[in-house]
Amino acid sequence: MSYNQIIYTTAPSPAIDPSLTSGTFRLRTVPRPENVPARKVLVRVHYLSLDPAMRQWLTAKRSYIEPVKIGDVMRGQSIAQVVAVGSELRSKFEVGDWVTAYSGWQEYAVLGENAVEKVVIPPGGRPTDALSVLGMTGLTAYFGMLEVGQPRAGDTVVVSGAAGATGMVAGQIAKIKGAKRVVGLAGGRDKCDFLVKELGFDAAIDYKAPDWRKQLKEATPEYIDVYFDNVGGDILDACLARAARDSRFVICGAISQYNAAKPQGPTSFMNVISQRVTMKGFIVFDFAKQYPTALRDLASWLSQGKLKRKEHITPGGLRSAPKALVDLYGGANTGKMMIEVAPVSEALGAKSKL
Amino acid sequence: MSYNQIIYTTAPSPAIDPSLTSGTFRLRTVPRPENVPARKVLVRVHYLSLDPAMRQWLTAKRSYIEPVKIGDVMRGQSIAQVVAVGSELRSKFEVGDWVTAYSGWQEYAVLGENAVEKVVIPPGGRPTDALSVLGMTGLTAYFGMLEVGQPRAGDTVVVSGAAGATGMVAGQIAKIKGAKRVVGLAGGRDKCDFLVKELGFDAAIDYKAPDWRKQLKEATPEYIDVYFDNVGGDILDACLARAARDSRFVICGAISQYNAAKPQGPTSFMNVISQRVTMKGFIVFDFAKQYPTALRDLASWLSQGKLKRKEHITPGGLRSAPKALVDLYGGANTGKMMIEVAPVSEALGAKSKL
């Protein structure tokens, strides 16, 4: 028996090339191990998470995490099922367990116990939530909005990349916490309608509309108290120009700049001084000790219907991952972008557990 | 009797034109009032403060302070002497008192009591200190470094515009508070020598040297924990590229960008996220309630010789102000830039009080 892996082979220059024969990645087929080492589990990957941060993992610069090495399996998190357990881990895992796994881009993975975590799904939840609203993107939205942004009653909150997995949760949390006005920026009319009609944003601006700057101004008559930035570039700049006195700018991501050969900095920077803006970058890992509290809040809001989520699941198996990642930077998704590596119907007689 | 004023007449586009016949400002001669209104004082200006922020006061954009109106006397602070007191203020002021005054650019000014403050000079101080180390620039350095930057023992602190009135105090305060390493950026060898030899900076980098980026890297082997920014532009960008984890970037000024038609934003902005940088703008006025404590500290450090200062006083009277302001943006000064409007020798029989 063998399975497929996707190997990082060539540094992007600067955009990712999704071709599996001549691009950034290559497909490799390897044999499935006959025996699992004593302190490992063998998992089968079902859903692979695609995240904007991935482009940064391919840049050999000082960052919050080591870059992926050329020749390694591409890094990534997944929802997977345990299919074999090493002799010393049998008190902790059993065949059929569903886990979130730091599996990387491959169909199977042999992992130590620190690389997997059993999925606990709350009422109203589903397993893929553990990759999104109850996983890294939900936690990123939670800590970014509440610990960094700190919206107060009466605040105007603006979120960019608002129809993405993190942005949609961030905006809803601001609303749950009593922000007066939550405005989202997203690409295209459909995404904007979704934000206002489905998620309850007070306004949404299509940044592809020629007059988006004017719309942003009109949508923020009392300026911007909290800006949750997922995109950087022109939109960050336009929001800085609308910064309210003592505003908080949560620098979560800069998807518009990840593929730029020469990134663009915010030119309305003088407002940082005149309006006493605090711009703060953060990485969700720094809040690891508070994950349990955050997950309790997120699960409770989800169960109560206060927090809605959406998934964008690409079929086609592992080999569709590079193209889907490129599409993510193009804004193809509304909600959490995932690859279906293996459907749940193929699960090891344990479908009911998922 | 008459006196001169400098009137703001034409918006800079974008640089200030110092000509008094065809430039940004015009000279106007007005009669000295015969009688001072009951709740006013008449002051004679001796030293006029020139500050980088002045360029921003001439931009008709939302800012921390209303712009100067075309046709008004140019705004500015000075050291002045009271030469006449209105009938209802005689219990508070007497002729000969030295005051800091929101006089604007003129030789005499009729001011309400809120626009003047009596100068109190501590041991080892001199009256012009009330415009610099014991005035706005000293306070700006104090709150920016201690409240925003919060240097800790062991930190590497970098200050740009380090030979300017604010920068030199900011760097020395970091040293007083136990920073491990204080590095200044300034323009030219003389300023750099001054920082290291006179003020005790650990290193100084001449940003006009072709290899300044390399020097900055070498001078910050453990990266930058606190960056006190007076200049913006390329230097801010280079410091962001050297940001340490959880570093604080104090955004105090951006003198390199004030005259730019299209300001330049920091392109190493991704480091804000990966290194969890906090960038915070501030305005000294926000700390007004804490001025007394700050002035006590600053005066005490000055008296103990822990804090050194330097002045750059331009002779030539009021009409030299526009040219000196342009020179300030060119970096002509080491230390606090002031105009001698009237020498102390001409003071109203009260020289000994100054």
UniProtKB/TrEMBL annotation, chains A, B:
CDD domains: PGDH. Keywords: Oxidoreductase. Residues 23-339 form the Enoyl reductase (ER) domain. Pfam families: ADH_N_2, ADH_zinc_N. The keyword Amino-acid biosynthesis does not apply. The keyword Glycoprotein does not apply. This is Enoyl reductase (ER) domain-containing protein. It comes from Aspergillus lucknowensis.
